[in-house]
Task: structure prediction
Amino acid sequence: MTLKMSSADMVAAARARIREIETPDLIGMLNDPDVVVVDLRDIRERQRSGYIPGSFHAPRGMIEFWVDPDSPYFKEVFGEDKTFVFHCASGWRSAITTATLQDMGFDAAHLREGFSTWEKHGGPVEFAEKKD
Result:
C-alpha cells in the first residue's frame, strides 16, 4: 500500500505552521501561572518516564473533544485564558495535535523535542506514587 502522505510528512507540515517551544524556554515558563503544560502521552509512558510537574494529562485520543466547549467531554481547564503547551515523547504527536487544534480555532503551542530531552536540559520530573 502506498500512502498519500507519510506520518513524517504530516509532522513536517504541522511544524511548518505551528508555534514550537524549545525545552529550555518551557523550563523557564514552568512557574508562570498563565501557562498550562499538557501531556499527551499514554498513562503508561507517564508512569514509566515521569512527567513535568504540574502538567495536565490529556490522552491524545480525547484532546479534540476535551477542548471543544460544545462536546460532552469538554474539560474546564481548556476554557481558561491561558497559554497551552502540548507535549508528547518526541514532538511528533504534539505537533499534529497542535495543528489540529489550531484548525479548530484553539490557540496552542507544542514542545518541539518532546519529553525525550527534558531531563537532559535540566527539566524537573515527577513520578506518581506507587499504589500498594
User: Anything to note?
Assistant: The chain has five helices and five strands. Residues 92-104 form the longest helix (13 residues). The chain has one domain: 18-117. The chain has a mean pLDDT of 95.
